[in-house]
Amino acid sequence: MNETMPVPHELFSHEPNAAIGFCFLAAYLVVILLITALMVVVFCKIFSKSGYHWAMGFICLVPGVGSLVAMLILAFADWPILKELRSLRQTPPAPAPPTAQPPQGDFR
Predict the structure, then answer these.
(1) What dihedral do alpha carbons 87, 85, 41, 69 form, nearest 10°?
(2) Could you report the per-residue pLDDT of 33-63, keeping only the tens digit for each?
(3) Helix %, strand %, coil % for the chain, to 5?
(4) 52 in helix, strand or coil?
């Protein structure tokens, strides 16, 4: 009954598939984090350009329905930038400043 605990480097010596599985899991998690970060940056930029606060892009982090909710907001809500454009188009343009009259008379 004098069994010793295995040394850490011996843990994976009997199961090489476990080490390979761990490497694939780590790579998978890194790829998922990179894709998630890219998605957040893209949604933040889209919300910013549409006139909303850029932080609304973090809605896509809600598990399951976040991206769907963000797309629905962008598709069906009235964008603040478009509201501003409509209000600017409805106001009459400012009158043009008077132009200078060409000099009249005889220049000899």
Answers:
(1) 60
(2) 999 999 999 999 999 998 899 999 999 999 8
(3) 65, 0, 35
(4) coil
**12, 35, 75, 96 from 91: Cα distances, Å:** 74, 44, 27, 15
Its pTM stands at 0.62
Percent of the residues in the chain that have a pLDDT greater than 90, as a whole number: 43
CA distance 72 to 76: 6
**Residue found by looking up tokens 């409805």 in the block:** 90
Instruction: Compute the distance between CA of residue 67 and CA of residue 61 in angstroms, rounded to an integer.
Output: 7
Cα 104 from Cα 79, distance rounded (Å): 53
Contact 43, 55 (CB under 8 A): no
